[in-house]
Structures are given as structure tokens and as C-alpha cells.
Amino acid sequence: MPRFEFHFDFGSPNAYLAHKAMAGIVRRTGLDCVYVPVLLGGVFKATNNRSPMERDAEVLNKNEYAALETARFVARHGLDKYTRNPHFPLNTIQIMRGAIAAARDGRGRPYIDAVFAHMWEQQLKMDDAGVIAQALDQAGFDGAAIAAAIQEQSIKDELIANTEASVARGTFGSPTFFIDDDIYFGKDRLREVEEELVRRGQEKLR
């Protein structure tokens, strides 16, 4: 079956929206998705990219249209818990390293679900170490243990390696998806992603 990957950073609201919408794709296709934590700041630095809000700041009407498209996406997928984080943009390096640590303990997906919710539903300041620890404790994790783990060099190195490998494959922002070696960028490509997953799945069953 095709390998389906989602390269993400918690700091991207579009990554949150894609994460929530992908649950339907996984259910309909029967294919799981491999979540790959990357550091968006590192991606931007390596690719000379900037956030859309910054890049398009002086383009008349473009950010307003982006907000309209986000509202349409939210409505289409019934994502009524989504809310803009007033602390945006945040430095996500701690929580991205935390995703590596949680995955090593076999709790990667619950951690991802919880942190996305803390960021884009509960409006928490998830670059504050105290806020992070408390939020993780409330979600059933050991916040202090994760805070200690993210200081390990191997955790830091894995996040760097993920980011560099993702850029080498073509990533320039978040959310980015891969089906085997083919890249798709942005939440608005999810329909094409699902269609391709179905096509490849059928092809391999022949």
C-alpha cells in the first residue's frame, strides 16, 4: 500500500486544520498516516521562505482572501473548535521536540492530538515551558519528563534530521504531504491527496 506522510509543525494553523480533516481521509481509505515532526523555522531558513502573513503583508486583499478560505475550510469540515491563537506566531521548538520524545514512548499520536488542541482550540501560549508542562499534565502526560527529554541531544538531532530530510524531498512549508515520493502542499490539496491514495491503493490490489 502507498506510504502516506504528513510533515507538520504545530505552529501552523493550516497544519492543525489539515490534521483534523485528515481523520476523514484515514477513515475512508483505511490507510494510516505517518506523522513527521519538522521545525518550520528551519524549513523557512533552508528554503528562503517566510510565513504567508509576513510574505503577503503588502499584497492588497490577499491575506483577507486567505482568511475567507480558512473560514470556508472550517465550515466545510465542521471544525467548530478552531480558534486563532492570540499568541501567534509562537516558537514551537520545545513542543516539536516533545513530539519526538512522545513518539519514542509510543504516545506520539495522542501527544499530537493534545498539543494541536492546546494551540488551536484552547489558545494556550505553547512556547512557555510552564504552560507546556501544565497542559501536558492535564492531558495525561508527564510534563516534567517530557521537558527533561527534549533536552537530550538525540531528540534535538532527530528533529534537525527530520527537517533537513523533509527539505531535501521538496518541503518548503507546512502542511506538506507525501504519498510515497510525491509531494503535495497545503490543506487545500487534501482532495487530491485522497484521490491519489485511493487510486494507488486500487492499483496495488490488482
What's the quick description here?
By secondary structure, the chain is α+β, with helices and mostly antiparallel strands. It has helices at 13-29, 40-47, 52-55, 62-77, 93-104, 108-120, 129-138, 143-149, 153-168, 190-205, and strands at 4-8, 34-37, 176-179, 182-185. It has one domain (4-205): Glutaredoxin.
Task: Kindly describe this structure.
The protein has 206 residues and is an alpha+beta fold. It has a single domain, classed as Glutaredoxin, CATH 3.40.30. Helices cover 58% and strands 8% of the residues. β3 and β4 form a beta hairpin. α2 packs across α9 and α5 packs antiparallel against α6.
First and last CA, distance: 12 Å
CATH top level class name? Alpha Beta
Q: Tell me the domain tally.
A: 1
Major sheet description = 4 strands, mixed
Using the coordinates shown, work out and report the CATH topology: Glutaredoxin
Order of helices and strands: EHEHHHHHHHHEEH
Strand order of the largest sheet: 2-1-3-4
